[in-house]
Amino acid sequence: MRVRAYRFRAYSSKTTARVLKTQFEAACRLYNALLHAEQEEYERNRHMMSRNELRQLALDLRKRNTEFQALHSQVAQQVAERFYQARERFLDGLANKPKKKKPHKFLSLVYPQSGWRLSDTREVGLGKNKKKRRARLYLSKIGFFTLILHRELPLERVSQVCVKLDPSGRIHVIFLVEEEAETLGQSSKEPKNAVGVDLGIVRLATLSDGRYLENPKPLERSLDRVRLLQRSLSRKRFLSGNWFKTKTKLAKEHEHIKDFRRDLFFKLGALLAGEYDVLVLEDLNVQDLIQKSETKKRRMRLYDSSFSELRVMLEWQFRKRGKLVLPVLAFNTSRECFRCGGINKSLTLEDRVFLCPNCGFTLDRDLNASLVLLKRAGWVPPAVPVELRPIPPLPTLGLVSGRHGGVMIQEAPAFRRG
């Protein structure tokens, strides 16, 4: 069995939102009480409480303390489970030692089995949006939420329900569904075509068929407003009302950037997975690239490009369709000649055209690297593209101008500008 998460946007009234925040604060205090009890038990008896003992202690604290009685009983036990898992990760050397939680950072609750009910499911919207459905979710001790169901949800297999508050104020509900494990291997059909993808800073992705996607640089284009909000936040008194308001604005700006980037990666992956049977990627060590960067601006652009997230998205799009993903070594892909295999040792980062010193082969640097990746994976393209051409602007990305023809604009995408 495997667990799949179904994440939906949720909306609530102001009263329900206040109750939810009160529940987060109570759960945070319960977590800290369990941590304190664990520390005292270890100092007194050199004994660490088991999972069942922590769960029972959470229930006992809930019975004795009226503040904790605002939590559902299973939610209180799940707080104990969260502390137990954090302690086990520390003992296994996978995380730092559990420490006292801050109320403004404890932003999720889990209903493991009961305490929730989904009802009043109905279709909404017209045309293309008619696929969406709206439903009402009731969470015990909290209230009602309105969910936008953008995909089918198998309610009979739901094992947990998690309600999460983002730092920007958005509410999401995650349903964890147990499903039978499927083997996402290669499909029975013989792969007919492959694409090599070279990742870069100037061009986010250069394909072996001659297409490329410009790097929109969402963080860099929104950096002025991010810096302005960060300076404003630093001047506010910590945990004051104005501090929380500015922190929410800053979180919204970062979430705009994150959502834009993920939307772009998803749509690029869907485009490639619909056209090709095999994906060839370079096995990059992104952290090593960032550490070896000489300038602060280059490190920021590497973070902004998010190669690791892009690779995960592309691989997921191919594998969920039963298609093949081949990672190959990234060493010297930019310096190796696609035609003869010679190495151009004098090539620098400023050189955008590759010139082979052995055979004289000349080609765009990134296109040559993508062809080298394809060659290393055992695939030979039918022809070498002569010219690069941009990928047509993907819809709803804020990269298409209002005029006809779909010209990619050069100004900042649809983020909030300072």
From TrEMBL:
Record's protein name: Transposase
Protein's organism: Candidatus Marsarchaeota G2 archaeon ECH_B_2
InterPro entries: Cas12f1-like_TNB, RNA-guided_DNA_endo/Transpos, Transposase
Any Pfam family matching the protein: OrfB_IS605
Coiled coil, from the record: none
Domain Cas12f1-like TNB per the UniProt entry, residue ranges: 307-372
A GO MF label: DNA binding
Keywords: DNA recombination, DNA-binding, Transposition
Source taxon at top rank: Archaea
Record domain Probable transposase IS891/IS1136/IS1341: where: 177-290
UniProt GO BP: DNA recombination; transposition
Sequence similarity: In the C-terminal section; belongs to the transposase 35 family. In the N-terminal section; belongs to the transposase 2 family.
